[in-house]
Amino acid sequence: MSKKVLVLAGDGIGPEIVAEAVKVLKALQDQGAIDIVLEEGLVGGAAYDACGDPLPEETLAAAKSADAVLLGAVGGPKWEPLPIAKRPEKGLLGLRSGLGLFANLRPAVLYPQLIDASTLKPEVVSGLDLMIVRELTGDIYFGQPRGVETLPSGERRGVNTMVYTESEIERILRVAFELARKRRHRLCSVDKANVLECTELWREVATRLSADYPDVELSHMYVDNAAMQLVRAPKQFDVMVTGNLFGDILSDCAAMLTGSIGMLPSASLNERGQGMYEPIHGSAPDIAGRGVANPIATILSVAMMLRHSLAAPDAASCVETAVARVLDEGLRTADIMTPGMRQVGTAEMGDAIVAAL
Amino acid sequence: MSKKVLVLAGDGIGPEIVAEAVKVLKALQDQGAIDIVLEEGLVGGAAYDACGDPLPEETLAAAKSADAVLLGAVGGPKWEPLPIAKRPEKGLLGLRSGLGLFANLRPAVLYPQLIDASTLKPEVVSGLDLMIVRELTGDIYFGQPRGVETLPSGERRGVNTMVYTESEIERILRVAFELARKRRHRLCSVDKANVLECTELWREVATRLSADYPDVELSHMYVDNAAMQLVRAPKQFDVMVTGNLFGDILSDCAAMLTGSIGMLPSASLNERGQGMYEPIHGSAPDIAGRGVANPIATILSVAMMLRHSLAAPDAASCVETAVARVLDEGLRTADIMTPGMRQVGTAEMGDAIVAAL
Ligand SMILES: CC(C)[C@H](C(=O)O)[C@@H](O)C(=O)O
Ligand SMILES: CC(C)[C@H](C(=O)O)[C@@H](O)C(=O)O
Q1: pLDDT of B84 above 90
Q2: Which residues are listed for Mg(2+) binding in this entry (chains A, B) (predicted)?
């Protein structure tokens, strides 16, 4: 039976990069490697502009009935004046929470072809291959109470709530332990247990669960130290697991270590194996519509989709190999361009990857 | 009239590094550059061990009546099993809040002599000079409600509260605007206003206040992007201002860009100009007691104290010049050692700086 893939291009460079990823999916379909049906939908600023809601009901319903969602990016200065409830980001957060996508996998991998793109010294980052597992449906992103209230004095006060239950912590930690098992057997759990009780509970649960994974070496690190260690010696890490807010900050920091965030995919999974796949970079409004954005992160997100939601691990490897081949051939989009390479646009890069499949 | 300086050595390498900083203060006293009275007190794990409380009443009282506090560092694995309320960190947090030290200044400066110590490429960090202004008495560090509660289902749930009032935000932003005025006139306010209402209020207040500082260029950045930009192009920043939690993470990341956190001081100020001064590195229990720790961050914290709380800006410059001279002479502690330099211990470094005064 065909699998259903919902394509949500979103804002900024979203439509351009998603178009290339769709080419890849269609090529695999033509080769008989997969059997999918593609649908399209609106999310983010594009959806707000069309119908006043960053996550229209039809979009959420279509996502729920899909096997996988491919998302470009949401947001841009145009919608920044809107209240939080109407912003493009609310569309993304609504999908995460509506689909229960609690496990966000964010690999930070350095491509040997792109080592010069990093701002870090080559010896510090060469061979970097770390995986950040970020909890995605809890924490201060969704905690209640929240909002801005007016005190009796007339002064206003902004409040958000960081909150985790034991079962939420356990669920994401098991995903991380399992992943570490398939990798280098090391898991670093990041918290602020010396100050925040919520993360003290996190640390306690992590420690308790580690008894079930004797083959995985668990360590704990405070979030401030983790931000330091990512800069000082990122190769010390295999899998890192943390909450939604710390994961947001650390995964972007880790991604930037590779120097090529235009290359990095992500997967957000729920308990039924449904997933949403998106590049970790944003909507880059400054370069939108110019055909220069790097589609590779989105194409590698398709590879993650093939592996995690479409049960097509061979097709996933094919896509990854095709990307590596095109890089070996010297093709580069502007963001990863270095002297001696051949600079290409979004569509040319997508076409080259399809040709290499 | 003499000024009173309370010395709190704390834990780990605290006593060793503070001893060298005290040598510097005494030398300045002998030269007639300052007129101070030194007192000592207990804080952190040392205080807990002595009297079961990481912040004894006498310590807080002595700090309140001092013009400045010099702090080494607190914490260590020995006290990690303790509940949050008894941990060494609580001593530090109690001082911050008890003295109302809302403005934490954390410079991240790259010493030209130490450019090789950075893990970043020289062109990315050479000349780096950024100042992080971190709010220090509010946010999720102190917000109520907090703690771990048991739900009717028997499951536990950890909660912390991120909270800021308009006046708290305004107070720290004014400090940051004033600092930017004395520097390169650029201020970047860091928040997560696309998701957290508390920081949406932060952004609104920052924007409103900017009308009072037309000579300062205010920009806003999301915290995840800020973590990226610190790695990508840290020299784009002059002054950054943010809340307590984001400041904790970003200032450590920024400090590590310089490659020598053993060099970086900090100041925490209240509205009356009282201040607490401490190195930004921690208690480094792994090297404690071995006489190898770098005392420079603590000695440069004394320079900040001279400038901000002891009204002795000339003496502050003297200390900074002495540190630079000793580095020029090639003296290095283990953490900043590079080939061709002369490696020295904690006391030898302190003595050399005193001699260079
Ligand atoms: C766009 C924003 C809401 C989102 C987040 O904060 O989670 C983004 O930064 C991310 O990391 O996917
Ligand atoms: C020790 C700890 C409580 C403290 C903090 O989180 O503020 C430290 O990390 C710092 O940055 O001064």
Answers
A1: no
A2: 224, 248, 252
